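FAQ: What does a multi-protein file look like?

Like this. Sequence, then tokens, then the next protein.
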Amino acid sequence: MAYSEKLADKVREALVDQKKVDEKVMFNGVCFMVNKKMCICVGADELMFRVGPDAYEEALEQPGCRAMIHGKRVMKGFVFVSEDGIRSKKQFDYWVGLALAFNKVAKASKK
């Protein structure tokens, strides 16, 4: 498994106050499910945040951010952020806050 344990620990710490957090191995990394909904995933050197379609365009303007592309399809509402985009606590907290805000209104995947 090729994900950064350092980044995963940082996410674990940020989500410690959330009531229902599960970790799932997927996307060549580890994904943090909050309330049974995908929220944040950790890869080797970047994080994937589920920010939702309303925050998507503004998110793409932030440093270190790029669109998530799955195959040839752009996954609107999901972004990758490199370590450069989360260096400071303020930057990291921005992304976690955005993902948690969308998580409150996101629909869970069908089983």
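And here is the next protein:
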Amino acid sequence: MFQGETAVTLDDKGRVAIPAAHRDLVAKSGNRLVVTYNPFEHGCLWIFPQEEWERVRDEVNALPSVKAVHRNLQMKLVGAAAHVEPDANGRVSLPASQRGASGIEKRAVLLGMGNKFELWSEQAHLAKIRETIGEEQITEDMLELKL
């Protein structure tokens, strides 16, 4: 399970290093990752281990494509998916098109989110972290949490 927040720097070739604490988990999952858009929030890419990605891909592709919102989700997740493998130094190359569309430049933040990573542009991450959850946004499910 991936968790934790790490400030990362992309090199001139658009590569980002997977934190050392997560490299063993990535290796155990076959050392293959899939990078795609976060379809719900701008400024963020999702990075899945291959096996988890296949589950997500199959669920998304099973949605009826006659609905525009389903096609949009399929385009952003499946259509844009790129397979990457960490090099000997634990770096993965992020597609230039995905970096550009999500605004991820030199400095970014990598979050371990359980079954996947989220790679945020530094600005988008800061804006998201500064948002607070208002009382009117609290869901019934959140009321059950023991925080």
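Q: Is there any per-entry metadata?
A: Some entries carry free-text notes. For the entry above: The chain has a mean pLDDT of 96.
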